[in-house]
Amino acid sequence: MAKASAPAKAILVGEHFVVAGCPAIAVALDVRARVEAETLPEGGVVEVESRELGKQTFGAGSLPSSPLYPVYVAVREVLKLAGASIGLKLRIESEIPPAAGMGSSAAVAVAAVAAVAKILGLQLTSEEVSAAAYAAEVQVHGKPSGIDNTVSTLGGAIYYRKTEGFRKLEADFSPIRFILADSGVQRSTGELVSRVLALKARRADILNHVYEAAASLVETARGAIERDDYAALGELMNINHGLLSAIGVSNAKLEELVYAARQAGALGAKITGAGGGGMILALAWREDAERVARALAGISPRVIIAPVSQEGVRIEH
Ligand code: PMV
User: Fold this and answer.
1) What separation in Å is there between the alpha carbon of 306 and the centre of ligand 1?
2) SS3 of 41, please?
3) How far is the CA of 273 from the centre of ligand 1 (A)?
């Protein structure tokens, strides 16, 4: 038996603008998905079980319609790397709310890859772990950037730009906490991305300036993170929220949450991810986090306080 866990992610700055080639920064949060793997006597079958999604058995020729199929895809990648065809049973336990923009599918895939590699005695590099999980993400999201599986594998803060790939930022996040609050409004990331791109095409002369501002904001935020300057980072998150409102992905509920967080003493608060619903992300000093969370709890169905997880995927003992 082997067990591994991997952290959730939140986009700190740059969502949407990243689609058009601007940089973005995401952080790993200490809210984790755990996967336990054991071998089965029958070769070639992979049984995957989660409390929310039930149990499903996969093998050659399985159809990709099950929501657990991506986990099988990730496991198959590891079996391929090992040249093995043993049977496996995987049990998923996740603290990460699904479909909330927190990278739950990627964290499950990353943890599954690590647990299966461990059971096979296979030493994988973090690139290999992330790549195997990316294969699962392609099943879930079509053509994802790869930021979720990268953050979940490496932990900490990750700077990303399409033309440059991923880079880990060194910072001491111990004085701060992130607070996430759910708007309770369902949204479709794909639909919002299309809507933003359509607006960008229609109002190119104006929005090009907004995109330029977003790119320069992310560069400034990278500097603030590397200097552990969280007052500056909070201010930049607030400006980033304004830019996201400008491209049309905010709404009354998200604004209510953002303002409540700021009024309760957050250093900054913004939409995180696609917007239109989903979560807001607030930054606060560690000692202020409870107060911010309490203010949000009255108006949000789900509030999470999370420190940054410097550690990415890890084997659990
Ligand atoms: O759906 P989320 O919260 O993981 O974030 C989507 C982020 C976008 O920038 C809007 C889209 C993308 O693919 O980067």
Assistant:
1) 20
2) coil
3) 5
267 contacts 283 by C-beta, under 8 angstroms: yes
In whole angstroms, what separates CA 291 from the centre of its chain?
Answer: 25
Question: Which ligand 1 atom minimizes the distance to the CA of 192?
Answer: 10
For the chain, 317 residues long, give each residue's pLDDT as a single digit of tens: 999 999 999 999 999 999 999 999 999 999 999 999 999 999 989 999 999 999 999 998 999 999 999 999 999 999 999 999 999 999 999 999 988 899 999 999 999 999 999 999 999 999 999 999 999 999 988 888 899 999 999 999 999 999 999 999 999 999 999 999 999 999 999 999 999 999 999 999 999 999 999 999 999 999 999 999 999 999 999 999 999 999 999 999 999 999 999 999 999 999 999 999 999 999 999 999 999 999 999 999 999 999 999 999 999 99
Cβ neighbours around 80 below 10 Å, total: 12
